[in-house]
Structures are given as C-alpha cells and as structure tokens.
Design a protein that fits this description.
Chain lengths: 112, 113
C-alpha cells in the first residue's frame, strides 16, 4: 500500500481557511487520493477524493499537485465542528480489495 | 447519519468469552468492511464481504470470524477474548467494491475486564 505523510497536528481559528497537507511521493498512476475525517466519538466520515484534477464538494476542496506527489485538503471556513482527525489515504482503483489503510492522520484543533 | 447501524454500542465482557457484533449496511450497499481501532494500533482493516462472499482479509485474528447474510447485514464474531481485544470496532459499507466512498457506523466499544 502506498504511504502518505501528514503532520501530526494543526491548529486554526474558527471562520478561517484551513489547509491540510499530505505527501504521497510513491503514488502510482492508478491511486486515487481519498480524505476521511473522524470526529470525537464517531466513526470515520468520507470527505472527498480525486485522481488528478482539483475537486470541490460541499464539505471541502482537494488540491492535487501537478506531479501528484502531494495534495492539500482545504476547509474554506472552519467551524468548531471541523475539529477532528483527518486522514489522507491512497486507494488503487484497480485493486480488487478496497480496504482503507489509515495512517496516524492530522489532528485538527479549531480555536473559537 | 451515515445510514450504517451497529449494535450494540457498548459491550463489556470478560476474558475467554465470545461476543457477536452486528452491522446493518446502508440501503443498497453490497460491500461491508470491518475495522478495529485501538489506542496503540490505530484504525486497522479486518475483513471485507461483498454480496455475501468474503472479498479480502486484513489483520484479522483466527479467533475472529465474520459473515454477511443474504439480507446483507454482517456479524463479526470474537471468541476466546483477551484483554488486548478491547477496542472500537467499526463497520463500513459501500455501493460496491470499486473505489467508492465507505460509510462508517458509530462503532461498538468492546471492553474486556
């Protein structure tokens, strides 16, 4: 499984944008970049995923570097509810097994 | 609400016992995944079922087994429980096995005394 590297923790202020980085230098051409988050006392929650182009949805934006060796999850206006552990995960689109391989993630703290 | 239902929410039992955790996937989802989250190991994949058949195995102990029934609900059976089995057990489901997002339940917290 291709590995990702994320900072252990980040801190931001409410109503400000948050940029969560992820390095994946060994990414293969068929790996999708997925982001999940886990709020306290809950199961992981899907946030967004992409292959090459930048992606937007109602929760966040995903910016993917041109060489695909890094990506950034962008929360445009953080709220207290966005405090969670954020996981960046690579998934091979051609693998039969679709397990998620979670790393340590980034613990995001939002200050009021 | 993810649409994935796990029961029970909490389970307290003793070493050597056997327990069954239950998962009802989102309506229409054919794949069910089981994950274990412990303080020292983080979130780890255990096993996947797709439409009633085992599709992939991860770090699942021989004391653990799972199955997916014709109505697509799944059960994770844990036997000869040890203190180290204390963890959160999550079930997730997806439409199929092809790179679709997984939707997680709120987990079952298992405590072994």
């Amino acid at each position: 499984d291709a590995k990702t590297t994320q900072p252990n923790s980040m801190e931001s202020n409410e109503e400000e944008p948050v940029h969560l980085p992820c390095n994946h230098s060994t990414i293969s051409g068929t790996d999708y970049i997925h982001w999940y988050r886990q709020l306290p006392s809950q199961g992981p929650e899907y946030v967004i995923h992409g292959l090459t182009s930048n992606v937007n949805n109602r929760m966040a934006s995903l910016a993917i570097a041109e060489d695909r060796k890094s990506s950034t999850l962008i929360l445009h206006r953080a709220t207290l509810r966005d405090a969670a552990v954020y996981y960046c995960i690579l998934r091979d689109s051609f693998q039969g097994a679709q397990k998620l391989v979670f790393g340590q993630g980034t613990r995001l703290t939002i200050n009021p | 609400d993810s649409g994935v239902t796990q029961t029970p929410k909490h389970l307290i039992t003793a070493t050597g016992q056997r327990v069954t955790l239950r998962c009802s996937p989102r309506s229409g989802d054919l794949s069910v995944y089981w994950y274990q989250q412990s303080l020292d190991q983080g979130l780890q994949f255990l096993i996947q079922y797709y439409n009633g058949e085992e599709r992939a195995k991860g770090n699942i102990l021989e004391r653990f087994s799972a199955q997916q029934f014709p109505d697509l609900h799944s059960e994770l059976n844990l036997s000869s429980l040890e203190l180290g089995d204390s963890a959160l057990y999550f079930c997730a489901s997806s439409v199929d096995s092809q790179n679709q997002p997984q939707h997680f339940g709120d987990g079952t917290r298992l405590s072994i005394l």
